[in-house]
Amino acid sequence: MEGWGAKQFFSIEELVKRWGLSRWTITRWADAKLIETKKFGSRRLVPVSEVVRVESVGLPSPRKPKDDAPPASGPTAAAQ
Hints:
By secondary structure, this protein is an alpha+beta fold. It has one domain (1-60): Arc Repressor Mutant, subunit A (Orthogonal Bundle). Helices cover 40% and strands 14% of the residues. It has four helices and three strands; from the N terminus they run E-H-H-E-E-H-H. The protein has helices at residues 12-19, 23-31, 48-57, 75-79; strands at 9-11, 38-40, 43-47. The protein has a three-stranded antiparallel β-sheet. A hairpin with a 2-residue loop joins strand 2 and strand 3. The N and C termini lie far apart (64 Å).
């Protein structure tokens, strides 16, 4: 594949190795629109520009924020 020019996309597998995260975490981020991806048939690829953006601003938190926790209830909640 010589002559195709500079790399334009990373596969999810490449990002698993590069970022040290699970495939499922990266896929969840893509589904939640935290990272931009492009679909080519059944393959989901991440543009190099998006990898640069994410690495410059930091990776999204892989866990749900604490704000999604249900409100406290029970005897300890009344004491607060």
